[in-house]
Amino acid sequence: MHCILLDDEPNALKALSMELSRHQDVIAIVAQFTDPRAALDYLHTHKVDVLFLDVEMPEISGLELNEAVRDLPVHVVFTTAHSKYALYAIKNSAVDYLLKHVDPEDLKECIHKLKTLL
């Protein structure tokens, strides 16, 4: 499955990318973004299976971006340091909600859910 990562913090992108690289037999990172607008443009022009999405970002929050991709065929996994958005994620059909620093076992379970969906 093809995924993109969106987080305004480069170190968080690097950490998630490293964790995901352990599962490269089933998931491929095709792009990484720190700019929500660039990620949104990419999602409108490329087929992506999964979006790993940070919540608190300047200009466009992950919640706003999630609304903007609602009609696209992409599964959203929220990756955030804040647990307070979990109810939003559940109500808006997120595949998973991973707290930073992403626990390897939680990520493994998330990938299993994604494999089942796809």
Question: What structural class do the secondary elements suggest?
Answer: alpha/beta
Number of helices: 5
Q: How are the strands ordered across the major sheet?
A: 2-1-3-4-5
User: How would you state the average pLDDT, rounded?
Assistant: 95
Query: What best-fitting shape do the alpha-carbon axes yield?
Result: globular
The first-level CATH class is given as Alpha Beta
Tell me the major beta sheet.
Answer: 5 strands, parallel
Q: How many distinct beta strands?
A: 5
CATH topology: Rossmann fold
Strand content: 15-25%
The SSE string, one letter per element, is EHEHEHEHEH
Q: Enumerate the spans where pLDDT stays under 50 for 5 or more consecutive residues.
A: none
The CATH homologous superfamily: Response regulator
Q: In percent, how helical is the residue content?
A: 40-55%
Kindly give the count of domains: 1
The CATH architecture can be given as 3-Layer(aba) Sandwich
| Rg on CA atoms, Å | 13 Å
Q: What's the N-to-C terminus distance?
A: 8 Å
